[in-house]
Amino acid sequence: MHIQSYRLNQHGLARLFGELEAKVMNAVWSLEEPTVHDVVKRLGKKANYKTVMTVMNRLVDKGFLERRKVSRAFVYLPRYSRDALTQHLSRQVLDGLITDFGPAVLAQFVEAVDETDSARLADLAALVESRLAARQRASGG
Q: Where a domain ends, among 59, 78, 97?
């Protein structure tokens, strides 16, 4: 599962998926083994059955959903929990930014953490110290 694009003008999972894909994923996570019909109901009156079915099948093709036939309908299951997917995708975004922009990204990351929630800056510092200490122990130092 790889990110195809990152939409700066969106929020949450819609930055990584299309807007409808993000809504479908959220619906699937909140329902137990939903059918397309269940997801359409969850999304509301504006949702088109065929469009939602196409999006769900694309999410199967992309590896985000599994499809299983139960009786005469297909049920869909997330291949990853919301937390596991969020961790994996955010790691991909960070890896790409660090690879492409190096130290500037790290500096901007620290700046953004400080500006949005300065208490998290101490959490970040503790994580860095913990990682450095673990590396030092692993190398015998």
A: 78
pLDDT at 1 over 80: no
Q: Which domain holds residue 126?
A: 82-138
Quick: pLDDT tens for 81-122: 999 999 998 898 899 999 999 999 999 999 999 999 888 999
What's the whole-number mean pLDDT along residues 25-31?
Answer: 98
Does 133 fall in a domain? yes
The count of residues in the chain is 141
